[in-house]
Design a protein that fits this description.
The structure holds 3 protein chains of 3 kinds. By secondary structure, chain A is of the alpha/beta class. Chain A has 13 helices and 15 strands. Classes of the chains: A alpha/beta, B alpha+beta, C alpha/beta. Chains B and C meet through loops of B and helix 18 of C.
Chain lengths: 448, 125, 499
């Protein structure tokens, strides 16, 4: 089957109009030696009903958060998605439109982007934001490239408390032009970057420092002190944020960050096995013309009616080509719209309540897990996740959890080989006391 | 289209108004009309060095970016800060309020390489 | 009553009233959705967060009710043109119908609510889907392996070019040049430059393909790759592709295939067989996943055997009947984003491929090419056809003769199409055609739609002859008229007043 509407009669009539007798003739410009003279080795087409069965069966083989209690985090979280979001996102006028190349028939997209940019600025405490990036990691990488370009320096610095995916992505993006990412070890007792250690590591070759806020282990870094050290050395501070945390913790802008990025999954997007989510990117006013990605701006039409357009497009690849600020064009607009709707539905009070509930639940869980015989790896302020040190391999806990329908946390063995008795546990506003007690029970059993 | 007689011109469509060792630089009426609505002009800071034939900034319309080339070498002594808020002056008054930078020339004899109004007009018409 | 504009009138979209912003609707203290309350024993926030800075001022987010939110975003949606509302022949973007079964499958909780860090043994369905999709895409492309990680076409290009760079480095070579035809998408040179290559433009020949003589002039041992779209941005298949590939390979360069136009060739010809070494696909174009106003997309990258070691990590492997994630790839370029890719988009593309099967996929390309040629045929006398050949899935015509006769430009024609209820084609691209209109009808449009669109374009050209000024005023029937883009760029307002 296909989704094409043609009847055989249609095809014949169209071919006849073209003076052709067969569809095959349409491809006569393709040299014979590169024609595929066999069917593709792909199974035959299936009906919708068959697809439902096939994909339904595949979906059921996954331990998803509708059937398992999810304590997994590390950048993707099981937050509550308000019921109003999916039906709005599935409206065809949002779902099946493209980049607003014709602004006269794209005001819905453009105005929602302007609202999005406004909300991201409000959340991060920054002056300007773009219309979104692919995800938090690639947003950090774009920020890194922007920083090296602006500073004329060739290195970046990040503590190992920055999420491994973020550091790896930054390294990949920087590698193309021969730039490097230096890593700073973090005091194992503190779990956060000591400003003095940063001062020692930072040289005048570093364009910027990237810091997680909170960091990968859930710890809230001392952003103000780190920003001061960075600025003293002429480097920028890039904060990679959990947007939910910004409902309760001071905005990075107020603490001195120069560029703020992050992953927006937590704002109304499903976990989707890690994507799509979206990345946000906000900066100080002075960096507006150096920013990557699309930006919507307000203007008026010929009759003076207010409207929006994509603006400052000369930064972009379709105009500046080899000298563009980035090659990004498609972003993750639909996911950004989910965030815009999410933030509208919650408002400042709702976002604060979500953040506060995470904080309460996570601290209660930490207390219960310590009582069960585990130990918090760090004595530092944390938000909604924390690193647990166990007297047993983390896999013992994870396996027991799976048997009981609980995703107990993640092992960091691959990313941090030295943390081989550790479990990263995230506790969102969705977790209940009963679920937390169940997790504590599993940990207790595993330890015994 | 207007090309004042008292100015010198480059093939890249900049004009120069020289007096003693100072040279005021902008883009021509022809250049602004080809560009369309100018929306942004990026200029060097006062004190910067510019080199004859090398780019000293960019001028942007909504959908184009063009380099600005220095007609002479020297030090930038003045920059038209008003263009930051009112880039449209480049369109409205290219030889007046739309001027871009003033250069203290290293070697005023470089002016001799530039085009006269008649020579420039012949090239663009 | 305060003096303010009425907001709560009826269907604003129907009467053309502008929609206020969500901030305009905000009132202090108004609430929308209430989040869940914790049922654990609570402690003071200041105590729990001791040592971390608490927010002094709440973020300036709107304070609105759920009804207001639903109404606002519904109304905003009504201001958009979309594939679901009409014909959208935007060249190079493949705005085909997006089947609803794809959406349903992607929203299955087993996929949508799956955390990326679940143990591999607890994500076998998701990993199997990725493993199978990789094989289907590799088969369509004629490649050895495919990474599903890139989030969009441009990131696919970045991935592919990093692989090419690393391949040369692994052979002890630092090649600096990347060749790009003058008809290429802007992303090609932007990508090459983003990772430090020098971009060199290659001219097109009289048939719209790569000019072989100009290609040879630029070929030397410093060439890392040629980036090519085939069919190219003119909608033409490069008949010399085998010779182009031979010459690039002869100097040790590689061939990069920009898959933007893959909708023309599925099951008909494979980039791998044409001689390409690296391919990216745009799942949101060829494989029917929705464009979502500009994303999320997905840009999987396929490579020939020799380049497999450099693919991003992780790859999905099947070992002893189990699907696993393989990170142990010492020569990898690294990763380009978090997790494994835009999985939700992958589910949609997988569903599409399984719905169509081998035969259906080939039929897609046949019908896409048939539709484009039929529409080109209907417009042949209305516009100039700069490269008059059989086209592939799209074609480019020039409005230069119309402009010469009437002063009406491609832009004016595009704007008037909006008044006729259609989306306009891509205009002013590719750059090598003056007053270009780039039209891609896709396979999911009926013969009648193509005929009606051609009629509308003919009517507009007739109007240009009679009343060119009216066309310069278009559009007049859209929610807003032509917008002051210069004003927007001169004094950017990129954030609303938060009141």
């Amino acid at each position: 089957m296909t989704y094409a509407p043609h009847t055989d009669e249609d095809r014949q009539a169209m071919l006849a109009a073209l003076g052709l007798s067969s569809v095959e003739e349409l491809f006569r410009d393709i040299p014979e030696e590169v024609r595929l003279r066999r069917p593709l080795d792909i199974p035959p087409g299936e009906s919708e009903a068959a697809l439902r069965r096939r994909l339904g069966a595949m979906a059921r083989r996954n331990a998803s958060a509708d059937r398992y209690v999810c304590f997994l985090g590390g950048g993707v979280y099981d937050h509550y998605i308000p019921a109003a979001i999916p039906p709005l996102l599935s409206r065809g006028e949002f779902l099946t439109a493209y980049t607003p190349y014709q602004p006269e028939v794209s005001q819905g997209t453009l105005q929602s982007i302007l609202e999005f940019q406004t909300m991201i600025c409000a959340l991060t405490g920054m002056d300007v934001a773009n219309a979104s990036m692919y995800d938090g990691a690639s947003a950090a990488a774009e920020a890194a490239l922007m920083a090296v370009d602006m500073a004329g320096r060739d290195r970046l610095l990040a503590p190992r408390t920055v999420a491994p995916d973020v550091r790896e992505t930054v390294r990949t993006y920087l590698s193309g032009r021969g730039y490097a990412l230096d890593e700073v070890e973090v005091d194992p007792a503190a779990g956060r970057l000591d400003p003095e250690r940063l001062a020692d590591a930072l040289t005048d070759r570093h364009a910027a420092v990237i810091v997680g806020y909170p960091n990968f282990f859930g710890v809230v870094e001392d952003l103000a002190a780190l920003a001061a050290v960075a600025h003293e050395r002429g480097a920028l501070l890039i904060a990679a944020c959990d947007p939910i945390a910004l409902g309760i913790f001071e905005s990075p802008g107020a603490l001195g960050a120069d560029i703020v990025v992050g992953d927006g999954q937590a704002l109304g997007n499903p976990m989707n096995f890690g994507g799509p989510s979206f990345g946000f990117f906000a900066a100080r006013e002075a960096f507006l013309r150096r920013m990557p990605g699309r930006i919507a701006g307000r203007t008026v039409d010929r009759d003076g009616t207010p409207g929006c357009v994509l603006t400052l497009q000369t930064r972009e690849q379709h105009i500046r080509r080899a000298r563009a600020t980035s090659n990004i064009c498609t972003n993750n607009a639909l996911n950004a719209l989910a965030a815009t709707i999410y933030l509208s539905l919650l408002g400042p009070a709702g976002l604060r309540e979500v953040a506060a509930a995470c904080l309460q639940n996570a601290h209660y869980a930490a207390e219960r897990l310590e009582a069960a015989g585990a130990r918090l790896a760090y004595r530092a302020p944390f938000f909604k996740e924390f690193l647990l040190e166990l007297p047993c391999p983390p896999e013992d806990v994870i396996r027991r959890g799976l048997e009981r329908g609980i995703l107990a946390g993640r092992s960091l063995r691959r990313e941090y080989p030295e943390l081989d008795r550790h479990l990263l546990v995230a506790v969102t506003e969705q977790r209940t006391r009963e679920e937390i007690e169940a997790l504590a029970g599993i940990v207790e059993e595993a330890i015994r | 289209m207007e090309f004042p007689q008292d100015l010198k011109y480059t093939e890249e469509h900049e004009w120069v108004r020289a007096s003693r060792d100072l040279a005021v630089v902008g883009i021509t009426d022809y250049a602004q009309s080809e560009l369309g609505d100018v929306v942004y002009v990026e200029l060097p800071a006062v004190g910067a060095r510019v080199k004859k034939g090398a780019s000293f900034g960019v001028v942007e319309s909504v959908k184009s970016v063009s380099d600005l080339f220095a007609p002479v070498s020297g030090e930038v002594v003045r920059v038209n800060g008003a263009l930051a808020d009112h880039p449209e002056k480049v369109n409205e008054d290219p030889y007046g309020e739309g001027w871009m930078i003033e250069i203290r020339m290293d070697d005023p004899s470089e002016l001799e390489d530039l085009l006269s109004a008649a020579e420039y007009a012949a090239r663009v018409e | 009553m305060s003096e303010r504009q009425a907001q709560e009138t009826g269907a604003r979209g129907l009467v053309g009233l502008p929609e206020p912003t969500i901030y305009d609707r905000s009132r202090p203290g108004r609430r929308g959705v209430r989040p869940p309350r914790p049922d654990v024993p609570e402690r003071p926030v200041e105590e729990l967060a001791a040592g971390a800075p608490l927010r002094r001022e709440p973020p300036a987010l709107p304070e609105v009710s759920e009804n207001q939110v639903v109404r606002h975003y519904t109304r905003l949606s009504q201001l958009n043109y979309a594939v679901d509302t009409g014909f959208y022949p935007l060249g190079s973007c493949t705005m085909k119908y997006n089947p609803r079964i794809n959406e349903e499958m992607a929203s299955l909780p087993g996929f949508a609510q799956l955390h990326p860090a679940v143990p591999e043994e607890a994500a076998q369905g998701a990993l199997q889907l990725m493993w199978e999709l990789e094989r289907y895409l590799a088969e369509i492309a004629g490649m050895a392996r495919v990474s599903l990680q890139p989030a969009a076409g441009a990131q696919g290009e970045l991935c592919g070019m990093l692989i090419i760079r690393k391949y040369h480095e692994s052979r002890g070579e630092r090649r600096r040049k990347v060749l790009v035809p003058d008809s290429a998408h802007g992303t090609n040179p932007a990508t090459a430059a983003m990772i430090g290559f020098d971009v060199v433009e290659v001219a097109s020949d009289a048939r719209g393909g790569v000019d072989l003589a100009d290609l040879s002039r630029h070929l030397d041992e410093d060439v890392a790759a040629l980036m090519l779209t085939n069919p190219n941005t003119l909608g033409l298949f490069d008949e010399n592709i085998v010779e182009v590939a031979r010459r690039v390979h002869a100097v040790g360069g590689l061939l990069y295939y920009d898959g933007a136009n893959a909708n023309a060739i599925m099951g008909v010809s494979r980039p791998g067989d044409m001689g390409f070494d690296v391919v990216h696909f745009n799942l949101h174009k060829t494989f029917s996943t929705p464009h979502g106003m500009g994303g999320p997309g997905s840009g999987p990258v396929g490579v020939k055997e020799a380049l497999v070691p450099f693919l991003p990590v992780p790859l999905v492997e099947r070992r002893g009947g189990q699907f696993v994630l393989d990170y142990d790839r010492p020569q990898t370029i690294g990763r380009l984003r978090s997790a494994y890719g835009n999985f939700g988009v992958l589910v949609r593309a997988y569903t599409y491929i399984r719905a169509l099967g081998a035969e259906g996929l080939r039929r897609v390309s046949e019908d896409a090419v048939l539709n484009a040629n039929y529409l080109l045929h209907l417009l042949r006398d209305t516009f100039d056809v700069p490269f008059d050949r059989l086209c592939m899935h799209e074609f480019v015509v020039s409005a230069t003769p119309v402009k010469q006769r009437t002063g009406v430009r491609a832009l004016d024609i595009a704007k008037r199409l909006l008044d006729h209820g259609y989306h306009s084609p891509t205009v002013y691209f590719p750059l090598i055609v003056d007053e270009a209109l780039m039209i891609e009808p896709t396979e999911t449009e009926t013969k009648e739609t193509l005929e009606d669109y051609a009629q509308a374009l003919k009517a507009i050209v007739a109007e240009a002859e009679e009343n060119p000024e009216a066309l310069r005023q278009a559009p007049t029937r859209t929610p807003v008229r032509r917008l002051d883009e210069a004003g927007a760029a001169r004094r950017p307002v990129v954030r609303l007043d938060r009141g």
